[in-house]
Amino acid sequence: MSKPRLHLDADTSIKALYSALIIRGHDVTRTPNEWIPKDASDEIQLLKATAQKRCIFTFNIKDFSLLALQYSTHGGIILAAQNRWSLSELIAALDSLVSQTNSEEWLGQIRWLNQWRRLQTTYFSVTLPSLKLTVQ
Question: 0.70 cut: is pTM over it?
Fold first, then answer.
């Protein structure tokens, strides 16, 4: 079983995100590249990513949800709401996704990146007053 290969569509094609995933050893491409021009439609990006056996990551929820219905044999679509993620959260979630899944389980699938989001834990301390206990 092989790890998923990712493609960042035009909406998610953030150089820092791309670089961070490459540094972590993941097979990632982005729009634009030698096989997808900068102005490629969503449909072309999905078809080209599928031809390259790649899951496509996008913030474009509406259009890619519709494309998934039209092209049921796509290589996998990963959705995220753009305004709800920091760059570090995107990196961590995509890193987890690639590490925890395999490419075969992505064929024809559309999933939310939230499944791989790490919950932020906030730690706090409370100082309690000293209690004197008496034993009778």
Answer: yes
